Please model this.
Amino acid sequence: MTSHPDTKIDCSKVYVKKSSFSNDETGDFDGAFAAVDIKEGDLIEKGVMRRLPEGFDGNTCPYIFTWSEDRPNKTWGMGSGCAPFYNTCKEGTANTRMVRYYDEDRFEIFANEDIAKDDELLHTYVSLKWRTCFSDLNEIVHKDDA
Model:
C-alpha cells in the first residue's frame, strides 16, 4: 500500500515493538524498527510536530522533542507517527537522521546507511548531552568514552 500523495504523516516503513536495548537493568521500553529493507539516503518517515504550550519544561520529559536551535531551548514539540520511539546512540553511529523543518513544524527521517528489515532504527538525540531527563541515558551511551 502506498500512502496518499498529500499526507503529512507517513511511517509505513516503520513498526514499534520492544527495543533490542531493553534489559533487566533498564526495564522494558519500545523501539522503532524497519518494516522493509531501506537504502542509504531513503526517506524512512515523515511527520508533523505539535508545539507544546509556552512554559512546558522539556528537560523533565524524555518523550518530547527539542524544537528549536536556541540554547537554552524553550520550544518543545510532540512528534507524530513512530518518531517518538526511535532510540538514541552515540554521535556518528546512528543509522538514521532527523531533518527538522522548525518553521513548518514538520520533520523527515532518512537512512544514513542501508538498513535491513527488522533492524532497530536509531538517531542521536540533538539534546542528549544537555537535557536533564537524559542524564542517565547520556552516561549509558557514552560509558566507553573514558
